[in-house]
Write a structure and sequence with these properties.
DUF1289 domain-containing protein; mainly alpha; DUF1289
Length: 59
Amino acid sequence: MPQTLSTPCVSVCTLDAAGRHCLGCGRTLEEIGAWSTLGENERRAIMARLSQRRAGAVR
């Protein structure tokens, strides 16, 4: 049985004013583009940084 790979996507695909991060998931364009080629460990590492990244964008 194949394991589903995790994703932070919430289907709100809009970039911040600077065009650096998705307002929905917090990923960079580079992270979004590479997502399908990343392993689960790499994805989880990115996801671990997203809450801090989104908190910093709110300030």
